[in-house]
Design brief:
Elements (H helix, E strand, L loop, with lengths): L1 H12 L7 E4 L37 H4 L22 E8 L5 E7 L3 H4 L17
Antiparallel strand pairs: 1-2, 2-3
Length: 131
């Protein structure tokens, strides 16, 4: 009976759950939004602009959609986001709750290890799809 009650409560509040996540890196566009990344006077790394959801219904142009509209807020010169194949990526992940930054480590794998020909389906592209 207790499991049933827990399930009912879980399903009741399920429609209230909403999540959006972004990887924060020194090489990202909009890192210091609404200031430029090389602005020494203003450090606004605690902004939620890169995490806000983009919807198809908003009718955004490519310029508005790319980098969440932060094309005018590039990273500092020389800062790049590096995702090494077979290595690991150390960065931060920010959820749609402002001021929540969690340090995570994401394992990077070569493209061909994500999809196998043995498990091929319409949702799992192979390396042939990118040739």
């Amino acid at each position: 009976m207790r499991g049933f009650a827990t399930t009912v409560v879980f399903l009741t509040f399920l429609n209230l759950v909403s999540a959006h996540v972004a990887l924060w890196d020194k090489g990202m566009f909009g890192l210091n939004y609404p200031y430029q990344a090389d602005d020494p006077q203003n450090n606004n790394y605690n902004n939620d602009a890169p995490v806000k959801p983009l919807r198809e219904l908003d009718g955004l142009t490519t310029d508005q959609w790319f980098a969440h509209g932060h094309k005018g807020y590039p990273p500092k010169a020389g800062n790049f986001m590096v995702l090494p194949a077979g290595g690991s990526y150390n960065g931060k992940s920010c959820f749609f709750i402002p001021s929540v930054l969690v340090i995570l480590q994401f394992e990077c794998q070569p493209l061909t290890t994500y999809w196998s020909h043995n498990r091929r389906s319409s949702l799992q592209p192979s390396s042939d799809d990118f040739a």
